[in-house]
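Student: I would love a firmer grasp of how sequence relates to backbone shape in proteins. Thank you; the sequence and its tokens follow:
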Amino acid sequence: MSHGHGGAGKVGTMASAAFDRAIFGRGKLAPSIATENVEAPFGEICWPKVHEKEGTVRFHVFAPRVEAGHSVWAVGSLAGMGSIAAISPSAVPLVHTGQRMYVGQVTVKKGEAFEFKFVIADADGQVVCQEPNSHASTPLGNGLEKVVHDSTFQYPTGAYRAAGVAVPVSGLRSSESMGIGEFLDLNKMVDWCEATGLQLIQILPINDSGQDPSPYSASSSFGLHPSYVRPKTVAEYYKTLCATDISDLLAWISDTQATLNAKDKVDHAKVMEEKTRLMDAIFDHVGLASVMKDQGLRAWAEKQGGWLKTYAAFKVQLDKERQFNNKWFDCTTWGVKASQAHALVEEGSPDWIAVSRVYFVQYHLHLQLQTATRYAERHGIALKGDIPIGVTRCSADVWAQPNLFKLGFNAGAPGDPQQDWGFPPYNWPEMHKDNCLWWRRRLQHMEQYFHAYRIDHILGFFRMWEIPKTGGPGCYSPSNALRENGLKNLKAIQTASNMMICGEDLGDCPPEVGPVLLELGILGLKIQRWCEGHTWKYPYMTVAASSCHDCSPCRLWWNQEWGSAEGWFNFFCKGKGACPGGPPDWVSQHIQKLHFDSTAMWTINPLQDYVDMWESLRSADAKQDMINIPGQIEGCWVWRMHLDLDDLIKASGLNTLINSMLREAKRGVAY
């Protein structure tokens, strides 16, 4: 079964949460569910009995593209099956058995043949999509009492293609945030996507990375970064819950917002300092007893299982280790082990107040991110997260389960010199002993916020360049059986959630990688300047991108690598004269048009490349649009939008242009 013409990808990709919960499901709200197909597990369907001279024809159809409130039906030439134009009461209702599979059944006389097709009806019963060709039913006879027709809905528009935007949460700018983008700013990004026709927001990792500004230096695979909380919303929460006066807190928050929002770049240290002070002040104003008796917080904490207690104990112990341990950055040197963590987090312990502060911050991060997730779903926009390839040595994960990591090695990449990333590689044999429980818990936790995720350096699931921690040259591990290794590791995490998976498969890619990703329905990545660039020949199971956070946006690339840009122009813009400087906005528009028109399922492009399509909206200096320069520390991860999100939403010229280009390319068209 395939999910459309011209696509060789897995059925499961189109049935993933990105489409099922967000783009088509729109949050699965009650008003929409009321007019959709009844949903029930296949085993619970009661099929009617038939007479001796009759038989049944059963329909199984995979229809991944069904808009919220719409329903799938079978109609045909058999008496009572209903017409193509509208759904009659006698048409065959199908049952949604999950994963966008629909089943139904009709009773026929033996020897009777008929034609049928599947249609999609709107909430009023009007047919809005029908298959272009009919199916012929196999007549019953010669002892045959049941015929099953398995098929995939034949959409007249062919394979589905969509578009999204890539932007780090930290880079969002609004009058409500405080020197850094916050989870609640994603609501305005959703509004902008709705105005432009984009259907997905891809962000960088959002887990706690401590004092390291790099989002890929995770100190927890579960805990969210405290920088992304909005203190004002927290204060207002307790004003409602406890009827407490927060006027002084609001004045303080307003002053701090004004100071931090005046900065062009993210000052991570200052943001963390000020937000920590504000969150502590809110906690102290409300009081320990009132914070911890909140039924919402208590119920949430109870559901989190072991990660929250381990993470809180880790944060408390980390503060202690910094005071006397000159190797505090390696938690394997700590005097207190994770097995002793229960003593730290027990209510009434000397550390209980510090532990409660961690719970308090994480609870409100959860509420605010979940608010953004639900807002995105209601508007048909998917959120795509990012999983770093590793976690740091100073992490709650390494502290709690050191056996899951090769602590005698550092992960990296070959080269002259070789890259040493500093974090320990995964100990896959150990992980597989419990069917990769750590991964499954991590992804199930992530799924409450995201509909899709990007795997950073997916090549690491096949092999990893491992460097002895004591120094010296590294080597690949394993050195053989890459297909088997990658397939085993990726299957283990794929089955943990229903999120759509995209793999960053750039760099020195072994030949085994592509076929495994295709077999599993995992999308690969192509950046035009780093491949042949023929977007019209990209495999369907691809994310096409004009640039990414680890390279220069297109306008900066044009100016920094003139030779490459000139070669690109002469090939892709034949007949348009000499290669212009700048480049002008029409060139930026042409770059995006190539991606919109591409054969890839998705094109997800950085916000900077979209904004550069409109001359008057561009930043004053393209160099300031860089997010990260691999191998460099200074100036990385501090990018902020030069536009306020409200101004971007009001940029009708750009927004109308993107919307019309997407419609012309038929991206985001369900039927």
Observations:
- The chain has 23 helices and 21 strands.
- The radius of gyration is 27 Å.
